[in-house]
Specification:
Layout (H helix, E strand, L loop, with lengths): L3 H13 L7 H11 L14 H11 L5 H10 L10 H42 L14 E5 L5 E6 L13 H11 L11 H13 L13 H8 L14 H8 L4 H17 L2 H11 L9 H9 L8 H9 L4 H4 L5 H17 L5 H9 L6 H4 L4 H10 L12 E5 L3 H18 L7 E8 L4 E5 L18 E2 L5 H10 L7 E4 L4 E3 L3 E3 L10 E4 H6 L3 H11 L1 H10 L18 E2 L1 H12 L3 E4 L3 E6 L7 E2 L3 E5 L3 H15 L15 E6 L5 E7 L3 E8 L14 H14 L28 H17 L3
Parallel strand pairs: 1-3
Antiparallel strand pairs: 1-2, 3-13, 4-5, 4-18, 6-11, 7-10, 8-9, 12-15, 13-14, 16-17, 17-18
Helix pairs in contact: 1-2, 2-3, 5-10, 6-13, 6-15, 8-10, 8-11, 13-15, 15-16, 19-26, 20-22, 20-23, 20-25
Protein name: peptidoglycan glycosyltransferase
Pfam families: Transgly, Transpeptidase
Organism: Salipiger mangrovisoli
Length: about 750
């Protein structure tokens, strides 16, 4: 057996690990082995690159061990070059800091992410079904309709019914997204881009980063509307206003909670469900909550039928619903809608031609929304009804009322006519008007010289003022009831009487003149004070007070002799109702404005009227004669300025002490109208009496109220004229006298006399 193979193996090993005395060729073989190279097939040992290299070096005469050591050193790794100490130190510190920051950052990020997940998860578990979030009002609404069935006022929180993002007009949906959150369908509830943009704008405008623009998404706004899941509880909050104020906080912590709640909503609900909640809960001015209520309130239609310009107007309200409401400032609301339409075009929701057409035909209010009449009347009905069905109702209520829109406009126009043309612009004098049927149904009400308003002081129902001579019909009603005739007489003369505890009291006429003996009719027509006092004292002050309160004067009637001069106080509504009792034949009335009350969508009447004709106060004959006497106030008395050319009217003027109050209350066969004038601070009027401006306001009102109606006679009863006392007739002379005359004539004839 040959051992030549083993020899080759040893030679290879020797080449891999050369001895100090190996040749250059052997070293070349070793290097080839280190690099993993293989000799080409057929190559002989000792040949190749390594051998060639060694042969070349030997030919050059560079053999020996030194040459081999140099070749090995060249192939060995060179040591690293030493760095500058300062650079190395800085680089080391930077590297250390970066590594520390990285470790902190990813740990903090992990903790924050965990906390966010926990926060979102917590709110997620608290979110109720969508259907429970659509109506978020703390109270219900009241819709008031007039005697013709038309809506004229809204009170409370209006909610037209739940809508969805797919049931409303596509224009409304697009307008809201274009205005409030154009990336609504592309974010997860919070828009970092929107927040960054809002901060940049706020800083550029010189505000704090969180002041002004908020960069909130629709989802975040919905979270705020939901008060981050905290619902109103009267036991927790002092008032609803405190609750709302807390929900509207803008602190950084609050913003953080809203963001978590918004992200939870994005997980719980679909985008359209979130938008549906927003469209139902957003306040859109005019007491309207939600798109449906706003569409009904401003345009008299449902939200599914809104066109582009109407939708743009509603979407524009979301930034400032109270100030931008079209019922408050239509032009301003239209300007905002114009901006929204441009946004809709820019974002592709409208074509250029559609936007141009919408811009050319801006949205306008419905006829009902344009009408601002009846505000004082609506306030009175709301205050007169039970709280649980009016001011604090938790249901949606519909109240049918006695208001006549034609008569309401007539009263408001009459007020404006007189104040615009006959009252100085600098005058602060106020006025009020009440129009009423003979049964106590209030048809119109103006509570101040400023018409078309609501929520303000109502002088027709809230101001109690001295009645002056407007009280005198109750004195004469008592006298007639006791059997006196309008033709009975009384002496108008200087008069004094002793009042127990007060001493002597000497009333005077307003004119300071006295007419002597006058009939009761003339005394009332000229509003003479002395006859009124004498009659009051004659029939008894207690009976006069009983008649006055019976006719509806609720305030305590002054029991002193000065009662006859109208020192007792009453509201215009009370006085007008009392005169209605005279017109209807002597029965008391309770003024009313509410006809019936129902829940919205329900035909069952929950409450009927609480007013109307009540018990009789005086007999019909006495009431009819009093009407006849009050006609003379207009025809020849102090109320001449109230005379109408086409029909019979009756009434009474009234001026209180020092002219602080001026009244005219009168009636035709169909309506009673009461007018009051005075200053709110109870200071005297200048140059105003009941027969002046109040009578003119009354005439202007009644002319408009009766326009186009048939003239009917008043229910007056003329009294029987007084019996004439028979004058004595001349008696025939006795026979004896005639005979003596004959004898005397014969004697004269005989004597030749003439």
């Amino acid at each position: 057996m040959s051992d030549s193979g083993r020899g080759k193996g040893r030679l290879v090993a020797d080449r891999r690990y050369p001895e100090r005395g190996q040749t250059g060729g052997q070293a070349g073989d070793r290097m080839a082995g280190q690099t993993g190279g293989r000799k080409p097939a057929g190559q002989k040992p000792g040949t190749g690159s390594g051998a060639g290299s060694g042969a070349a070096k030997r030919t050059a005469g560079n053999g020996g061990g030194g040459t081999r050591r140099t070749s090995v050193k060249k192939n060995m790794r060179r040591p690293a070059k030493k760095r500058n100490f300062l650079v190395a130190l800085v680089l080391g510190i930077v590297s250390f800091v970066v590594s520390i920051l990285w470790r902190i950052t990813w740990r903090v990020t992990a903790v924050v992410a965990l906390l966010l997940a926990l926060g979102v998860g917590y709110f997620y578990t608290k979110l109720p079904p969508v259907t429970e979030l659509l109506d978020g009002r703390a109270r219900g609404s009241v819709t008031l309709i007039d005697r013709n069935g038309a809506i004229f006022a809204w009170r409370g929180d209006q909610f037209g019914g739940a809508v969805t993002a797919t049931s409303v007009s596509k224009h409304l949906k697009n307008a809201v997204i274009a205005t409030e959150d154009k990336r609504f369908y592309h974010h997860f509830g919070v828009s970092p881009r929107g927040v960054a943009s809002a901060i940049r704008i706020n800083l550029a405008e010189g505000r704090g980063p969180l002041s002004g623009h908020g960069g909130s998404t629709i989802t975040q706004q919905t979270a705020k509307l939901l008060c981050i899941g905290v619902f109103y509880d009267p036991k927790v909050w002092k008032s609803e206003a405190d609750y709302v104020s807390d929900c509207r906080q803008s602190s950084l912590a609050r913003k953080g909670k809203e963001a978590l709640y918004a992200m939870a909503m994005e997980l719980k609900y679909t985008k359209d469900e979130i938008l549906s909640i927003y469209l139902n809960r957003a306040y859109m001015g005019g007491g309207a909550y939600g798109a449906e209520a706003a569409a009904e309130r401003y345009f008299g239609k449902n939200s599914a039928t809104l066109n582009a310009q109407e939708s743009a107007m509603l979407a524009g309200l979301l930034t400032a619903p109270s100030t931008l409401a079209p019922t408050a400032d239509l032009e301003r609301s239209q300007n905002r809608a114009s901006t929204v339409l441009r946004l809709m075009r820019d974002q592709g929701y409208l074509s250029a031609s559609e936007e141009q057409q919408a811009q050319a035909n801006p949205a306008t209010l419905s006829e009902e929304a344009q009408s601002k009449t009846g505000g004082y009347f609506a306030d009175w009905v709301m205050s007169a009804g039970p709280e649980y069905f009016t001011r604090d109702t938790m249901e949606d209520v519909v109240i049918r009322t006695t208001l006549d829109p034609k008569l309401q406009k007539a009263a408001e126009d009459a007020m404006n006519e007189v104040y615009d043309n006959k009252v100085k612009e600098s005058s602060k004098a106020q006025a009020a008007i009440v129009v009423m049927s003979a049964d106590g149904a209030v048809r119109a009400m103006v509570g101040g010289r400023k018409t078309g308003v609501s929520g303000v002081f109502n002088r027709a129902t809230q101001a109690k003022r001295q009645t002056g001579s407007a009280f005198k019909p109750f004195i004469y009603a008592t006298a007639l009831e006791l059997g006196h005739s309008p033709y009975d007489t009384v002496v108008d003369e200087p008069f004094c009487m002793n009042v127990p505890g007060s001493g002597q009291w000497c009333p005077q006429n307003y004119s300071r003149n006295y007419k002597g003996k006058v009939t009761l009719t003339d005394a009332l027509a000229h509003s003479l004070n002395i006859p009124a006092v004498k009659i009051s004292e004659s029939v008894g002050r207690d009976l006069v007070a009983k008649v006055a309160t019976g006719f509806g004067i609720k305030s305590e009637v002054n029991s002193s002799p000065a009662m006859a001069l109208g020192t007792s106080e009453a509201t215009l509504l009370e006085m007008t109702g009392a005169y209605a009792g005279i017109l209807n034949g002597g029965s008391a009335v309770v003024p009313y404005g509410l006809v019936d009350l129902r829940l919205k969508g329900d035909n069952e009447v929950l409450m009927g009227t609480g007013g109307g004709i009540r018990e009789r106060v005086i007999q019909p004959d006495a009431a009819g004669q009093l009407v006849w006497m009050m006609e003379h106030v207009i025809n020849g008395g102090t109320g001449g300025r109230a005379k109408l050319s086409d029909r019979e009217v009756a009434g009474k003027t009234g001026t209180s002490n020092d002219a602080r109050d001026a009244w005219f209350i009168g009636f035709t066969a169909d309506y009673v109208v009461g007018v009051w004038m005075g200053n709110d601070d109870n200071s005297p009027l200048t140059g105003v009496t009941g027969g002046g401006l109040p009578a003119e306001i009354w005439r202007e009102t009644m002319q408009r109220v009766t326009e186009g109606t048939e003239a009917k006679p008043l229910p007056a009863i003329a009294p029987e004229p007084p019996r004439q006392v028979a004058q004595p007739q001349p008696q025939p002379q006795p026979q004896r006298v005639r005979r003596d005359n004959i004898i005397q004539q014969v004697i004269r004839d005989l004597l030749g006399g003439g």
